[in-house]
Structures are given as structure tokens and as C-alpha cells.
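quick one, 305 residues, struct below
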Amino acid sequence: MSFPLPPPPTYPALSYELFPPRTTSAEEGLWRTIRALEDTRPDFVSVTYGASGSNRDTAVGLLKRLLDETTLKPLAHLTCVGNSRDYLVQLVYELISRGVRGILALRGDRPLDRSLPEGDLQHASELVELIRQAERQLTAHLCAGRVAVGVAAYSTKHPESPSTEHDIEVLLAKQAAGADFAITQVYFAPEQYSQLLRTARRAGVDIPIIPGVIPFTSVRRLERLSELAGLQIDARLKDRLVSAGDDAERRRIGVRATVDLAHAALNDGAPGIHIYTFNEHAAALDVLDRLELSRPPAPGLIQTA
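---
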């Protein structure tokens, strides 16, 4: 005899991006950030990975510490540019054996000076397929479960793409290869995420697409993002930040703009919010406080009938 069940409690997903530290002082700062973010009970934290595995040991070390010393669930970035198939398979094996249960599959940036070989895989969809193949070899280790595989999505046209329509075709290929969800790169205008969502859904993309946002508190960082990712900076936002009387006012302006962007995405049906922290927690926590995002109760506080 079966009984109807009430719907499960639903909370928007919350996640952060971190990157491996390069110095001892940076590591100390990162761990202050990790402890502060841990208190918000995020669903996962992503850990970036350098081109061609340039920071492999540091990245894997950070993943291990997150698993061993925190309650956080890490999502390991993995790029395929410049790497052989065998190298990537062995790295996936290593990640799974260490307890990682989430991987963000990325092509990675091609070096402008061609200092790295192209590698065996040319597209993120091929990397997703490779992860799924490696996963099938380790089903016993996973209790016949699965690794969650995420991919990148673009609310603005990828700088190397001929069109936004091509970006959607690429996202469809990643989904067909076995991707479970996508996280967008940074964007500035609410309509950019809503347009991506509408276009992707019409094309047949049905995996969750999580909007990625940054606290808009640093003009220099925005300019750097524009340079690296080919993003068009919101001119009005930039002018307001430049004209701010001091850092405190600049922070208020930037956080408010980020919160407005996140609220708009949630109203459009976003399943959650991914915050690019740049290993700094203060502005990220400001965004979270003002966003008033519902979070699940802390462990041990769940009430039963």
C-alpha cells in the first residue's frame, strides 16, 4: 500500500567558486574565506584548475583538504586543452578515488602563443564523454552511483563562437554527452540570462542552468574580465563605481547591482546562484545577506513529526 508524499522542501542552490592559492599568505586568506563560506551551507564549492594542469598538485591538494577538513562538497574543474586522453582518465580516477563526486568539464583556454599542444580532446563535450567512460570503470567505488558533471554556458556569446546559436548547439552537445547541469560565465544584464534560458529551452536543453555572478565591487576586476572573456561591461555600472566617493560606497553600489542581477535570474526560474568569489568572502557574504536566499536547516535541526 502506497501513501502520497508531500513535496520535498525546495531551496535555491547556492555555490561558490574558489581557486588554489599561489603563496602561503594567499592560502591563509583562502582558508579564512572557506570557513566563512562554510557557515552558509552551500550545496557545493567549485575549485578551478589551471591550463594543461599547470596547478594540478595545488588543486588536488585543496580538494583533499576540503574533503578531509570541511563539510563542503567540492566540484573539481577539469580542462582538456593540452592534455592527453590517458592523463585525463588517470586524473578522473584520482579525483573519484579521493572522494570527489562532482566535476566541471571545460575545454579550457587555448594559449595564444601556442605554447601548449592541442591535446587529444578538442571540445568539452568530448571531456564529458570521457568522464562518463571513466566513471563506468569505477561503479563499485561509487556504489553504482554517478558523478555529477557540470559544464559552462554563456549568457553572452563565447568570444570564439560565430553566434549565440552556435553556443546553444555546443550546450546541446554537452547535454547529449552526459552533462547534468551548466553554470554560466559572468554577465551584466538580466536579459542576457533570461534570453539564454528561453533560447536553450526552445532548442531542447533541459538540464539546470545556474547563473554565475560576481560582486561588482572592483572596476579593475571588471576591466580584466572584459579583456579576458570579451565581455561588454555595463557602462552605467562602471561609471557609478568610478564616481563613488570611497570604497564603502563602491561596495554598496556593486553589491546592490549583483543582488539585482541574481534576483532577476531567480525570478526567471534560475535553480540557484553561483558566486565567483575570487577567494574573498566579505563581498560574497554581503550579496548573500541582501539576497535573503532560503537555506536548508543546519544538520541536527531538521524537525520530524
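Residues 201 and 233 are 26 Å apart (CA to CA).
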